[in-house]
Amino acid sequence: MIRGLFICFGVIFLAANAYIIQTFPGAMRSPGFYNNPVNSGYGFDYKEYIKRHTRGAPIMIYTLNDCIPCRKTKSLLQQQYPDVPAYFMELGHGYPFERRLERDLLEVTGQDTFPYIFVCGRFIGGSSDLFNLHNYGRLRPTVNSCPATGFHRD
What is the pTM of this model? Predict the structure, then answer.
């Protein structure tokens, strides 16, 4: 029974990811999540992963499933900035690595709410901060001046 439950959750997880990719074709999934995390002895330390991958993407967003501000953020990027590579990683399935990543996001950013948004490798805040940049006309120039063109492979 437990094995069947794990299989069921796996199928739901894959279907949800396929739905996200189809719903937000302008947004790309973060490649290489499992590449080179640092084992701190207490589990993996994702602080370096966060720093490395946010530097390599014009826009990098860590989201939760069923998060309304996260959906609004993705929708804004899809509608207003379809030409800008916006990478995102959606958490919320309760896996141990997600809990650790969430703790490390809190340590790196000082923010404890989703979404975590990085523009040109710099943490800008959450959904309202991204909307403020957009509304004041500062998001497009920031992204256009961003040297990041894609994920760096170490």
Answer: 0.69
